[in-house]
Specification:
With 370 residues, this protein is α/β, with parallel strands linked by helices. The protein has twelve helices and 14 strands.
């Protein structure tokens, strides 16, 4: 059986180091807002190329806090609209609606699965305040045209970088491209903690301070509360673990590129539509860190059953469009044909930094016989 993802194997790579630092945290007697968090925040900011990094409790909170901070700073107010891809994970939209803001969905490009930048301008209204760019499946989604649109309409660009830590666009890292970015260190993400964890990066000092304050009960001084904040902390244990993992993220992302390259060169079956890349080889496409390797198959149910019968686990990211979710029934009358078509056909193949190239060959061979 080849599992979709083995978190145990991923963490086993660094087990010695992880045990060492977690023991240090236990022995330190200090578990929140300590030197491990400060060190990780400094190292993350340096890695991304942003002025500030703020550790928070999870990826959803990172995005929620960015928007909440913009509201406290009077950049946005309840009822304003935020543009977001129609085919993203629900967290991107929840961060918006949780702040009494309105998600406005825009169709993806069927080749990249990322938001179609050419369709953004048509969705802008007088109430639009920001575009949430999601670097979906690990592929950077950016262009000069996007910055021009944001400047022209005076919009903030918020990056949902939950799936793309380490990806680059023209030599700059995702998470440093827009006005602010949210990261998730959920265990299954490219850089996973051993529990929930997240971060915000930005070059905007005022925003950084507000995110920090709002994530700590709206307080800058103990028991003095200037805002109705949240409790959203990145604890010392997870910060120490993430600081170890940060050292290996580039290397692990490169391993993911090797796996992706193995699939792209090994799979040859007209029934399987492979993801497109922008360079000759996936090995040098630094705009992609392959959080997921997503193919399209018309006969998906049959394909997944066939893969299961051959001992290979596959998953779907994500099976239901946001406007078709019960949670967003207010949008059920809307129609996003591209998003809906993609949702019917996408299948994610196993990918991780510890997937053996031998297994990639086996999986490709099985797929070629479908
Ligand atoms: C995982 C994810 C999130 C949320 O992160 P959590 O840490 O699970 O809260 C947000 N957006 C996208 C695109 C994600 O994949």
């Amino acid at each position: 059986m080849i599992p979709f993802l083995s978190l145990k194997d991923i963490n086993q790579q660094h087990a010695e180091e992880l045990k060492k630092v977690t023991n240090e945290v236990i022995d330190s007697g200090w578990y929140l807002f300590g030197e491990r968090l400060a060190t990780f925040e400094k190292n993350l900011a340096e890695f991304i190329g942003s002025e500030h990094a703020i550790g928070v409790a999870n990826g959803l909170d990172a995005l929620r806090l960015i928007l909440k901070a913009y509201i406290e700073l009077n950049v946005m107010q309840a009822g304003d609209e935020i543009i977001v891809p129609a085919n993203t994970y629900i967290a991107s939209a929840l961060a918006i609606s949780d702040n009494q803001l309105k998600p406005v969905f825009v169709e993806p490009d069927p080749n990249t699965f990322n938001i179609d930048i050419n369709k953004i301008e048509a969705a802008i209204t007088a109430k639009t305040k920001a575009i949430m760019m999601v670097h979906l499946y690990g592929q950077a989604c950016w262009s000069e045209k996007l910055s021009d649109i944001a400047n022209k309409h005076n919009l903030k660009i918020i990056e949902d970088n939950a799936q793309a830590i380490g990806a680059e666009w023209k030599g700059r890292k995702t998470g440093a491209l827009g006005d602010a970015a949210g990261f998730s260190f959920y265990p299954g993400k490219n850089m996973g903690a051993l529990a929930d964890a997240g971060a915000v990066t930005t070059n905007d000092e005022e925003l950084a301070n507000m995110v920090r304050t709002l994530g700590n009960y709206g307080s800058t001084k103990k028991y003095v509360h200037d805002y109705k904040g949240l409790n959203s902390r990145l604890n010392e244990m997870q910060a120490a673990i993430l600081d170890v993992k940060l050292k290996y993220i580039d290397q692990e992302n490169q391993k993911r590129r090797e796996v992706a390259n193995g699939y792209l060169t090994g799979i040859n079956n007209s029934k399987i539509k492979l993801p497109k890349i922008t360079t000759k080889s996936a090995l040098t496409a630094f705009n992609h860190v392959w959080h997921l390797f997503v193919v399209r198959v018309a006969n998906r149910e049959q394909f997944q059953q066939y893969m299961t019968d051959n001992g290979i686990q596959t998953l779907i990211h994500y099976p239901i469009s946001l406007h078709k979710q019960k949670a967003y029934s207010e949008f059920k009358h809307l129609s996003f044909p591209i998003s809906e078509e993609i949702q019917q056909e996408i299948v994610s193949l196993p990918i991780s930094p510890v997937l053996e190239m031998e297994d990639v060959k086996v999986i490709s061979k099985v797929i070629n016989s479908f």
